[in-house]
Amino acid sequence: MIPKSKKPYRLHKNKTTILARTRNPSVDTIDATLEKLFRILPSIVNIYELLRPFLFTLPPEWAHQLTLNALRWYGYLPAKKIKRDLTVEVGGLHVPSRVGLAAGFDKDGIAMRGLSKLNFGFLEFGAVTPRSQPGNPRPRVFRLRNDFALINRLGFNNQGIDALIQKIVKEEPQVNVPIGINIGKNFDTPLDLAIGDYEYCFERANSLVDFVTINISSPNTPGLRDLQSAEPVQALLARLVRLRDSNVKHSQKRTLLLVKISPDLSAGELERLCTTIREEGVDGIVATNTTITRQDIDVDQPQGGLSGRPLFPLALECVKLARSFLGEEFLIVGCGGIWDSSTAKQMREAGADLLQIYTGLVYQGPRCLRSLSQTD
Ligand SMILES: Cc1cc2nc3c(=O)[nH]c(=O)nc-3n(C[C@H](O)[C@H](O)[C@H](O)COP(=O)(O)O)c2cc1C
Fold it and tell me: Exposed end of the chain (fewer CB within 10 Å): N or C?
């Protein structure tokens, strides 16, 4: 029985209905309730599994917006700050787990706080471009349920780097894992001026984030992948490495510079690209982006980049080759079709230091992060 003095409500004389609060519940009581709530929230998060059949009846982009908004609100629920063990150092990043969120899931950083409450070791936002742009006409995301895959041809729909920077400035103090952003060029910037777009984004983000990923591998911006070829990539990387280094002198902060590569390169192309990446002094690669190939799946599928389980063998092979070209010390983030502890283990054995996931999350929900986050 609650002692009289602690009862938050007073019953009106001779009436059984609660009429008024005689005093506010103490701050301690509120804290205790919120703590309890936060303790059970992980099981509430599993509600994703219950909601998925409903979400999968919606067009994929709507379902994604709903999920992002739910995560946004989840981020604002009051809770005790989770302490993260950031003692594992990988390639200069201090991470609580090796599994991070891949680019494209939260392009504009709207659910930054909520995502940081899930079991990710690090988060990548974007891709962003200097100016906001709507992306390609809809529909532009497709589910391939039988293959546990997605095809997207979004085309860098985003609100622009400045909007993302504002979110980072506001939210970053609440985020307790390393964050990075993925940068691209606007669709109407000619390829020979693309370096300017990357420079602009890099300079804006440089001192605020832990890593910046140069996206030259999205299949959905015409010509973008041409930037992976010898001359343009050398010029682009040389400029960005110079910017990174001059920032170290001014702000004492060293932002890691990563390059995201395509799984569709031949072994020869990959070797040449890796050589340039290493020679120019880039810190690491993300392997891989989506593929335009359609191995073992229905060939009539729409145009765009394929992600999820069918991408895994390609991404795995790419990581293996890249490791052999880049040497032991170079940071490699493996991405593409990672689904469970077995695929995570294979990716680690192929040479990936860190891992990223996107499509696996859409199909399985945040629960899959529990086992993945234990990846050694
Ligand atoms: C809908 C969608 C949007 C994506 N947008 C981006 C993006 O903006 N920038 C980027 O580098 N990769 C983007 N990706 C690729 C993912 O980051 C990742 O490289 C790819 O999906 C492979 O991982 P997965 O099989 O775990 O999904 C996107 C993927 C999907 C499915």
Answer: N
